[in-house]
């Protein structure tokens, strides 16, 4: 695949995932009744819903921003923990295999976003070096005249 194609695919997957995450986060942050029922079913107090919702909203914003890559990495990690925790909570509640495994589908999309982003970044960096541009890590070095 061409670097531009990979980058466009990364952006599309990431924006789609972030939009879904944002919608889920808003629903949970306002403690919609369906979310409260799920929390009761899983044995969690309802106020946990607010915390998870706000976390998802912040993660959605962090995933699409470009200025702070470390914050984006933390968002990927946080959402990964949330989705794995959802699998465990569903299993502990005795839910069906479909409900237990459904967060793994979202996890696969999240991983696709992450690895497409890393590949896009690497290809961009390699392309700059091949074109004779100064590497990003050496941008602070001043050359003697």
UniProtKB/TrEMBL annotation:
<keyword id="KW-0812">Transmembrane</keyword>
<keyword id="KW-1133">Transmembrane helix</keyword>
<feature type="transmembrane region" description="Helical">
    <location>
        <begin position="47"/>
        <end position="64"/>
    </location>
</feature>
<dbReference type="InterPro" id="IPR032808">
    <property type="entry name" value="DoxX"/>
</dbReference>
<feature type="transmembrane region" description="Helical">
    <location>
        <begin position="99"/>
        <end position="117"/>
    </location>
</feature>
<dbReference type="InterPro" id="IPR016944">
    <property type="entry name" value="UCP030066"/>
</dbReference>
<dbReference type="GO" id="GO:0016020">
    <property type="term" value="C:membrane"/>
</dbReference>
<dbReference type="Pfam" id="PF13564">
    <property type="entry name" value="DoxX_2"/>
</dbReference>
<feature type="transmembrane region" description="Helical">
    <location>
        <begin position="76"/>
        <end position="93"/>
    </location>
</feature>
<protein>
    <recommendedName>
        <fullName>DoxX family protein</fullName>
    </recommendedName>
</protein>
<keyword id="KW-0472">Membrane</keyword>
